[in-house]
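Much of the work behind modern protein science is quiet bookkeeping, done one molecule at a time. The protein below has been through that process, and both of its lines are reproduced in full.
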Amino acid sequence: MRHQSLWIAICAVTAALSTTATNAEFIEDSNVQLKFKNFYLERNYDDRSDLNYGNWTQAVTLDAKSGYHDIGAGIQVGADLLAQYAIGLKSPDTTNDIHMPYSTSEGKTQRDNAKIGATLKVKVAETELKVGDLLPMSPVIFFDPSRQLLTTYSGAWLESKDIKDTKLTLAYIDGINARYDNQYQNLTLFPQNDFAKAEAANKSTDDGMYIFGVDHQFTPKIGGSYWFADVTNIYKQHYAAATYKTKLAEKTNFDAHVRYFDNSETGDKLYGDIDSQAISLGAKVNHGMHTVQLGYQQMFGDHGSQASMFPTLGGWVPQPYLDNWSVASFIRKDEKSWSLGYTYNFKEVGVPGLTTTVRYFQGWNVDNGAGKGRGKENENNVIVNYVVPEGKLKGLGFNYMFIDTNYTNIAGGNNLQEHRIATTYTYKF
C-alpha cells in the first residue's frame, strides 16, 4: 500500500481538478505559493576532522492548496500539491551529509533532489480526511523542516472538530520520504536511517503505522491530550499530556505543560524488546519583548538491546514534543536533562521582525552499562531570525543558527559546532 495510496491520491486529485475547474470556490479559495530557500550548513567536529562537512543548496517549492468543491450531501472535496526541488551549490562529494540523497554503492552524494506529492482532501462539516502526501504535526509523528527539503509521509489522516472543544484524529501511515530521500520507504527504528540496509536485514515494516489521538480543552486555561501509535512490528507508543495557559498581567502570559510517553515493542519485535518511558515538563513566561523558557526531561525504562534511545522513526524524524529535543536530543537511558532559553523581540525598539534566542541544554546520568561510568552532554544554541515586515521585500526572511554540542563518556558522541544560514522568500499568487 505504501506506493499505492500515493498514486490513488494523485489519480483522485486529477479527477477532482478536471471536474471542478469551473467551480468558483475551488479556485477562488485556493492558496498557491512559490517558496524559495537558500540554505548553508557547516558542521565541524573537535576530534574527528574526517567527519567535517558543509553544504550549500538552493531550493524551490510549489505549495498549492485548492479550495473546496461541494459535491452534494454536505460533502466537499479538494486537492493539494507539493512539489520540491533542491540543487547543491556546494556539497561534499563523498561524505553523507544526511541532506541530499547518498549512493552507498558509489560512495557519492547526489547534486540535486526532487520530490512531488499530491493529496486528496474530503470534508464534511468539521471533519476532514486527507489521503496521499502528508505533513503531520502530532505527538507521535512529525515532519522535518530542519534541512532543505521537507520530510513527508504517505497515508490517510482523518481529523474531526465536530465535538465542541475536542479534536479527534485517526490515521494510517504507510511510508516515509525522508529529508535526504526522493521516494517513499518502509518504516524503521532510529538510528537505522539506511532504508536499503534495513530492508535487506528485515528491519523495516511494510505494515505501516496506526494512530489515534484526542485533544480536549476542558476550560479556557486547561487542556489535555491522549495519543496512541503502533508502528507495526517495531514499537507502540502511548502519550498523555496536560496544558495550562493564563494571563498573569496585562503584558505577561504564562504557558506550562507536562507530557508523558510510554513505549514498548509490538508484533514481530523487529528490534527486540523495547521498554522506554519519558516525562517532559515545560514552562514559558512572556512579558512584552521578553520570553523565558524552561524545560526538564527524564528517561526511564530498560530501553532494550537494539533500542538504546527513546524510540523514534528512522530517517532522522524529530520529536519536538520532548522539551529538550535538539541536536543532542537527550534521550539516552536514564538520562535527566534541563534547558533554559531566552528570546528577545526587537519590535518595540524599532526593529519589527527581528528576534534573537539563546538556549542552553544540559543532560546527565546516562546509563552506559554495567561497570561503565555515567555519561553527560550539553548543548548551546544561538538563533537570529529576521523577516522583512513591509515594503517591496515583505516576507523575505533571514535565519542564523549556531549549535555547540559537547559529550562526556557518551558512546558515539563527538563534540561539534554547527552553523546554519537560511534565506527564504515566499511568493503568493
Observations:
- The helical segments are 2-20, 24-28, 195-200.
- Confidence is low (pLDDT under 50) at residues 1-7.
- The first strand starts at residue 31 and ends at 45.
- The radius of gyration is 22 Å.
